[in-house]
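Quick entry between incubations.
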Amino acid sequence: EADIYQTPRYLVIGTGKKITLECSQTMGHDKMYWYQQDPGMELHLIHYSYGVNSTEKGDLSSESTVSRIRTEHFPLTLESARPSHTSQYLCASSERGSSYEQYFGPGTRLTVT
Amino acid sequence: AQKITQTQPGMFVQEKEAVTLDCTYDTSDQSYGLFWYKQPSSGEMIFLIYQGSYDEQNATEGRYSLNFQKARKSANLVISASQLGDSAMYFCAMREVFSGSARQLTFGSGTQLTVLP
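Done. Structure below.
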């Protein structure tokens, strides 16, 4: 079982609020990722990190930002939530190397009213 | 063009029977990896099986096997002896070693599998 955690699991918040979605892993993985997934749809990469102080945007444009100050922690922040941000957000991590699978957290289901 | 194509939005299978979920991919890389994930209704993504492009034998993990046909660029997932707990969304994904940005996974649109009692 993967040791990757996300909080909160569910969040309902009003438009304009600032939110931070937490993601932590205890496996010492260098690589971490954030995906956005609408119900029943494919996952889209929005942010990734190769290590501490390394962050890049993914293929899907997102108004969110991320930081990687510690290896185990990769939080995602929305400065001003909007209804269009309603989605599931999945955090993942992996070891270096192309053959290693990504371990996923349980996800955060965000609803912006 | 889609990098990963899953043409079956939904599939039904009788309990204890085998089922094949289709996946085709598009890449010009010689080196890549193919993954299958299961996503139950609870939302988490569970890794099932991996196939490297240079692996000569099809990958197997318990009841899961990957039917890898490199020339046809297909990587179908075979689930043997289906169980009710196999009902979930199944995603095929690819990581390209050289041309994929950040070497992240690219996912298909998924197949919703329902196992009937």
